[in-house]
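4.2 Preliminary Data

To establish feasibility before requesting continued support, the project team ran the inverse folding procedure on a target of 513 residues. The structure was first converted into the token representation described in Section 3, and no sequence information of any kind was made available to the design step. The complete token record follows.
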């Protein structure tokens, strides 16, 4: 069977990598992955007891640039000092000697697992608590990198490895800064993946650790939304969107605290983001505990200040208040003097005095009118009204009820009527009898007795008895009951109807006695 001499075949490529590394230290086993700047191979470190390692071999065009090799050397040396469970450990780095041909490569810790990009390609989104866990672990790894005065510059799902135990590890740091030395026309790539590049990085400005915070914010956005915050037909269009456009709003199904956290991470101004991985890790911890994410330490709360020119709706709104509450027109210009966020409008000065305005005396703020006098007057009126009602009720009760009577003895006078015996000597007489009647003390009601007006004199009616000579004993009974009342001289007279007069009472006026 003929050997495969195709340079692009896996066997030929593996033999080329083995020749590059040599046979004394590493034994290449298989290809793990390939990226825009490098390819990663699985090998055994023979000097470390066949320890499995990952060998990242950079593209040859990068190694041909002298400035790139210098930056690569510096960054790789510094990266070896980073010690964090969330950062892939770097064992060694190699580069071709002066004048020698060959690629640069890095020997790293081999991680069993897969990249976050592979997980998202299969699941599209992650549950919120898992997305926060990825962000927090990555922030811890970035805090170790930033503490070593390093900036990753290329945080993306492909550079975040997830182990079967759930540990997130950052890889591929220290290479992006070295790649900045290679012109874009030669490499055909952008330093930092365009979908996750920060605005300052896309503009070629100086980057800070907050650049990695922005890129991680793009990763967090993709984990909860299932899409990247910015997209475009070209790499340049995506980079311009990062610079000028705000990120689209996350779905309302995402927890508000997570939306706020990602919003802070994706701020255009690096000074308004979290400064580094350490501050970001603290913020994520607050969110995982159910609190709102804190604002970055360098962000001062902004106070909205109203302009001097009031909106026309303001005057219209004031016109709806009670007329008594409105201030005079000349006082309105100074009504907000001294209030925070407001500036009292002053008329422009004219003439020489405008050049050096004298300090005008500060007008004392108008004291708020008190309603104490109004309440006091109302209370007094109520007291007077209550007193008048009380007096009126007392007067009515005195008229309708009597005073308690005292214990007294009343005399009841009874009169008896003696019928005549039929003889002339017998005369009807009244026999008064008095019996004392003792009553018990009690409250009695004394109704008012109406006044009966006196009757006018009545003329003597003919054919009726009465009014005869009381002194004639032989008169006899009259034609009616009225004549009988005139018998006897001392028996008293009678009225026109024959009723006898009570002794001691005068006859009605107009009648004979």
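Position-by-position output of the design step:
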């Amino acid at each position: 069977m003929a050997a495969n001499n195709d340079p692009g075949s896996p066997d030929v490529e593996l033999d080329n990598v083995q020749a590059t590394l040599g046979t004394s230290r590493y034994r290449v086993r298989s290809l793990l992955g390939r990226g825009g700047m490098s390819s990663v191979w699985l090998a055994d470190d023979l000097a470390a007891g066949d320890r499995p390692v990952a060998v990242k071999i950079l593209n040859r065009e990068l190694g041909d640039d002298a400035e790139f090799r210098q930056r690569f050397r510096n960054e790789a040396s510094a990266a070896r000092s980073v010690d964090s469970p969330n950062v892939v450990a770097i064992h060694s780095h190699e580069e071709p000697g002066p004048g020698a041909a060959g690629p640069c490569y890095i020997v790293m810790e081999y991680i069993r697992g897969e990249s976050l990009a592979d997980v998202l390609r299969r699941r599209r989104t992650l549950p919120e608590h898992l997305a926060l866990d990825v962000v927090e672990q990555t922030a811890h790894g970035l805090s170790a990198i930033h503490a070593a005065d390093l900036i990753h510059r290329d945080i993306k799902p492909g550079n975040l490895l997830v182990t079967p135990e759930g540990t997130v590890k950052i890889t591929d740091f220290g290479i992006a800064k070295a790649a900045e030395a290679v012109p874009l026309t030669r490499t055909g790539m952008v330093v930092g993946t365009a979908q996750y590049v920060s605005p300052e990085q896309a503009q070629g400005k100086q980057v800070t650790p907050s650049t990695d915070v922005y890129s991680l914010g793009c990763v967090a956005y993709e984990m909860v939304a299932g899409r990247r915050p910015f997209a475009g037909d070209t790499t340049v269009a995506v980079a311009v969107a990062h610079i000028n456009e705000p990120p689209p709003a996350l779905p309302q199904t995402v927890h508000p605290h997570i939306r706020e956290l990602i919003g802070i991470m994706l701020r255009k101004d690096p000074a308004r983001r979290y400064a580094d991985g350490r501050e970001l890790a603290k913020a994520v911890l607050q969110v995982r505990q159910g609190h709102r994410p804190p604002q970055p330490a360098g962000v001062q709360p902004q106070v909205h200040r109203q302009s001097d020119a009031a909106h026309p709706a303001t005057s219209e709104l004031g016109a709806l208040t009670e007329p008594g509450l409105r201030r005079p027109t000349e006082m309105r210009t100074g009504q907000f003097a001294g209030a925070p966020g407001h500036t009292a409008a002053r008329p422009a000065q004219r003439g020489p005095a405008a050049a050096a305005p004298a300090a005008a005396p500060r007008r004392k703020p108008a004291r708020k009118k008190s309603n104490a006098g109004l309440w006091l007057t109302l209370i007094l009126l109520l007291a007077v009204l209550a007193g008048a009602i009380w007096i009126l009720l007392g007067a009515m009760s005195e008229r309708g009820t009597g005073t308690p009577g005292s214990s007294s003895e009343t005399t009841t006078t009874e009169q008896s009527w003696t019928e005549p015996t039929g003889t002339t000597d017998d005369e009807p007489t009244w026999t008064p009898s008095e019996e004392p009647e003792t009553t018990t003390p009690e409250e009695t009601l004394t109704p008012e007795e109406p006044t009966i007006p006196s009757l006018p004199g009545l003329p003597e009616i003919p054919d009726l008895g009465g009014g005869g000579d009381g002194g004639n004993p032989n008169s006899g009974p009259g034609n009616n009951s009225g004549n009988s009342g005139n018998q006897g001289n001392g028996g008293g007279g009678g009225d026109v109807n024959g009723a006898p007069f009570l002794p001691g009472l005068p006859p009605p006026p107009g009648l004979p006695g």
